[in-house]
Amino acid sequence: MDPEACTACAECAKVCPVVKPDEYQMGLSSRKAIYIPYPQAVPCSYILNMEDCLGTNPIACGKCTEVCEPDCINYDDHDRIVTRDVGAVIVAIGADVYDPTEMDEYGYTRFDNVITSMEFERLICAGGPTLGHFVRPGDQERPKRIGFIQCVGSRNPAIGRPYCSNICCMNTIKDTLLLADHYPDVECTVFYQDIRAVGKSFEDMFQRSKEAGTRYIRGLPGDIEENPENGNLTLIAENTTSGQIERHEFDMVILSVGVGPPKDLAKVSSLLTLSKTSDGFFMESHPKLKPVDAPTRGVFFAGFCESPKDIKDSVCQAGAAASRAVALLNAGEVHIEAITSVIDADACKKCGVCASVCPYSAITWKKGEVAVVIDAACAGCGNCGAACKFDAITMRHFTDAQYTAQIRAILAEDPQDKVFVFACNWCSYSGADMAGISRMHYPVSNRVVRTMCSARVSEEMVLEAFRCGAPIVLVSGCHYADCHYISANRQTVQRVQRLWNKLEKAGVRPQRLQLEWISAAEGAKFAKVMAQMEELRKTVTMEEIEQAKAALKPKPKKPKKEKEPAAVAG
Amino acid sequence: MDSDPKGDELRVGVFICDCGLNIAGTVDTQAVTDYAATLPDVVCAIRNRYTCADPGQNEIKKAIAAHRLNRVVVASCTPLQHEPTFRTCVAEAGLNRYLMEMANLREQCSWVHPGDLEGATRKAKDLVAGAVARARQLHPHDELTVPVTKRALVIGGGIAGMETAIQLGDAGHQVVLVEKEASIGGIMAQLDKTYPTMDCSI
Fold first, then answer.
1. What 3-state DSSP class applies to A128?
2. How far apart are CA B154 and CA A300, in angstroms?
3. How do A259-260 and A96-97 pair as beta strands?
4. Per-residue pLDDT reduced to its tens digit, B95-154
5. Which secondary structure element, helix H or strand E, spans residue A513, and what is its range?
6. Residue spans per domain, chain B
7. What residues does B154 pair with on adjacent strands?
8. Is A513 within 8 Å of A383 (Cβ atoms)?
9. Which residue of A8, A297, A319, B54 has the smallest Cβ count within 10 Å?
10. Which residues in chain B have their CB less than 8 angstroms from residue A397's CB?
11. A37: which DSSP letter?
């Protein structure tokens, strides 16, 4: 369809023979294969769903083209890739409404008169399938006794949704007021865990709902029964205020469904190297101080995809995200931290390993030629530096010499008492900070050194820690599929695996080298892992430490010429 | 702005932050300061009440001039919070931004080991020793500057995406709005009335 040419005259839909459930109306009415999503749609144009269309081949339908006066239907149109350079990205991919099919104790799939709060919206709406006449789907009768069940798909760890969806309490309160306004004889009953009416004028709405006759019962129903004669429903719930098991009969039951991360989140997340918190929503740079910035520079969040929020909060956050983006766009230029990789052309053996492990394709290499780093594309993870076997790569500001000096200084005294930890900047180091911010306590034995990525931890760095007498070395990074540097921590796994083999061959207990994935949100996990490491440390004897120091001595070789090149002026 | 250390002589200044009682309540910061003074190439070790506050930053700047410091170690909180602060501070005193190193005595020491003065102090000393050792190996760097394309991409045409796009447009920037459905509007367009005002969603 050509949206510019379409006049939304609707002639095409009149002649289309295909009938499909209307997604906008939650499947409560039908649409054609050629249709407008809803009358106020933007752009105001009909669309042709080619999956539904009978097409012109092999059976020629083509009825819509015959009646389309502006001639805007093109059966051969196809998806196109559009390329645009941008300086800022705002991620506002929203949420998915919870599908209560899996919680069948509420009978959503079995009983006609159990509907979701989204279906309620369409049934009460003047633009809905019943033109706003509120009726039961089962028999088109107007219900008088209506039960609402809160927290369906929210605050329920058993189904992996432990968080509060934020909007459902107020949405139900709104629904009860709407019903009271439209039908004064209606009786609403709300089953809830807690009513969260936190927001400007929300408490006032809650009180008005009660004054309008809505009964609020503290306790979620455990079962539902349908009377097959009349389609009425009985909810069985423990009223936690009275401690009694109660049975309540209704004409209709509305499941106040929660909202969760959208299913496209993982796709967008991997495109922009974003992370998510344990509830599955996007993780912001800082929960208080940088609430709309993504850890990836130039990316900002707005709306539900960052955390559950209502319209007002979405609008507020949209303004904040726009303002952060404007600050970046108006600055006109950004400084790139001088932590990029530098290749020493003289030392490079032209093997190309660095180019093969770079997650950003920031290293160009041709067979027989010295590898070259594209500064602006390098993100500074350090994977290439750890992978180069010829000491030809220096990571600026995170050099081998700097790490060696740091490891030796930290383990100079009583190394047998210390757990040596490498933690990646974006996840595990932030996770350690999170443990601190949350005042979680753990054994004092650990000593953390920060690397940008766990893939920066070279075999030499780990061996050096053992040579200095560390009983336990822990390499920690972002979760395997969630590396801030796209896929760099796959190399971490391979490197640690090689080290385990190496340790085993040298007679060193491989268990002394540990690998853990700890995300920035997992302060509790960091604390737990530190306690585990301390237990493990206690099992390592002085004999083992001394044996490892001797067995892992470096083979004598020429002294390394590492010189950190100063940065090129920008 | 590179300010290379003069000759090969390393002159490290260490600044230990009490952070009120956030650090000093658990770590013997004076003992850490005394210990820092004994580390190689450390020419001054100073304890501050709040290193990030103006008086603390001024003390760093004064010490850079007075002691001709060419490396600075700030032992305070996480670098994820205050590395930009102290980088700017040393740059204002004429030192390259990359010649500053931090030791995390708060989030990863005092806040997680309360009640263990001896253990936490010992750990703090190690973290400072590590930071000083690393600082002695630091090199000055200039940052690469790249231009920003003055156009924004908004992914998602629900209420949040639409509002962001409008505001970016109002600020005079071109916006590319990507929506997977045929119409913008998102979930909100399916709602009838919306709280708290009870007016229509579209």
1. coil
2. 9
3. antiparallel
4. 999 999 999 999 999 999 999 999 999 999 999 999 999 999 999 999 989 899 999 999
5. strand A513-517
6. 12-135, 151-200
7. A90, B177
8. no
9. B54
10. 98, 138-139, 141
11. S
User: What pLDDT is attached to residue A355?
Assistant: 94
Amino acid, res. A121: E
Identify the helix (H) or strand (E) that includes residue A517. strand A513-517
Please name the residue of chain A whose CA is at the shortest distance from the CA of residue B188: A311
Residue B158 amino acid letter: G
Q: Which residue of B has its CA nearest to A437?
A: B107
Structural domains in chain A plus CATH codes: 1-83 (no CATH), 87-334 (3.50.50.60), 393-551 (3.40.50)
Q: What is the mean pLDDT of residues B165-171?
A: 98
Q: List all residues of chain B from 6 to 25 with a beta carbon under 8 Å from chain A.
A: none
Whole-angstrom distance, CA of residue A91 vs CA of residue A83:
18
pLDDT band at B1 (very low <50, low <70, confident <90, very high): very low
- Size (chain B), residues: 202
Q: How would DSSP label each residue in A231-297? A: --EEEEEEETTTTEEEEEEESEEEEEE-EE--TTHHHHHHHTT--B-TTSSBPPSBTTTBSSB-SST
Token digits of residue A283: 């993780």
Instruction: Compute the nearest-CA separation of A220 from chain B (Å).
Output: 24
Contact B187 A95 (CB under 8 A): yes
Residues of chain A with pLDDT under 50: 569-570
SS3 B152: strand
Secondary structure (3-state) at A523: helix
* Number of neighbours of residue B146 by Cβ within 10 angstroms: 14
Mean pLDDT of chain B: 95
Q: What is the pLDDT of residue A390?
A: 94
Give per-residue pLDDT as tens, B30-55: 999 999 999 999 999 999 999 999 99
What CATH number does the domain located at B12-135 have?
Answer: 3.40.50
Write the DSSP string, A43-59.
Answer: S---EE-TTT---SSSS
